[in-house]
Amino acid sequence: MFGLIFFVALLIGMLIWTRQQKKAADTRPIPSNIDSILNQEVSYFRNLAVDRQKVFTAAVIHFLRVTRIEPVNTTITDTDRLLVAASAVIPIFGFPRWQYRNLTDVLVYEDQFNESFQTEGQHRNLMGMVGSGYMNGKMLLSKTALREGFNNKTDKENTAIHEFVHLLDKADGAADGLPEALLSRQYTIPWLDLIHQQMAAIRNNQSDINPYGLTNKAEFFAVASEYFFERPDLLEQKHPELFGMLEKIFHQYPDYHKPIQPILPK
């Protein structure tokens, strides 16, 4: 009997907590000048057709309403919040109904942190991380890296997009470089073969893809995706097969920002 009472009390407590947390996210004010900030800071948005910009803005607003973006021992601006939201929307823009069901909070740190989420001391070499265990549902980002990802137009890197791609990869239950929630089954083997080929090229110093992609298949997928969204023209020129596969995965062609007809994940 006691066990049943405890279970019911726990369930009620979780429901109340979830409702309060959702309300906190929903009532956070949305910047009034959202379009002008996106146009100024996000080249992906700037290059969209006007009708697609409206869709992008709506997706950004929805993300802000359902996701808490909180500073940790720092301050963040409306622009920082919009950069986080834009980073979330860019990789899912080919999937109009997609929602990050595995994310509730984005925690923004001033700069690098370590695996214990400390901002002082040794081994502070992380700029972004998708939480697991008791941190499940949370993403950690460096404010410095967040801003640099949108300020630098030529480096093929964007930490925030990198971390959101990890979330997409993890949507099928495993962050393994095989985004089964996005990728049609017929492309699974070709994609894995291509990853191995591309990683071999990096290992042999025959590729301009970030060598961090050698860490594992999940990191290769994330760094290749950064390249795809940051410098699609260059990726298509230097790695046309990889570009074509990422185009299939994300259902969009970011060079001209004409999304391919979306195939919604089941």
Automatic annotation (TrEMBL):
Residues in the signal sequence: none
Listed GO MF terms: aminopeptidase activity; metallopeptidase activity
Ranges annotated as spanning the membrane: none
UniProt xrefs under Pfam families: Peptidase_M90 (PF06167)
InterPro entries per UniProt: MetalloPept_cat_dom_sf (IPR024079), MtfA_fam (IPR010384), MtfA_N (IPR042252)
Cellular component, GO, one term: cytosol
Gene3D superfamilies: Collagenase (Catalytic Domain) (3.40.390.10), Glucose-regulated metallo-peptidase M90, N-terminal domain (1.10.472.150)
Protein's name according to its UniProt entry: Peptidase
Species of provenance: Flavihumibacter petaseus NBRC 106054
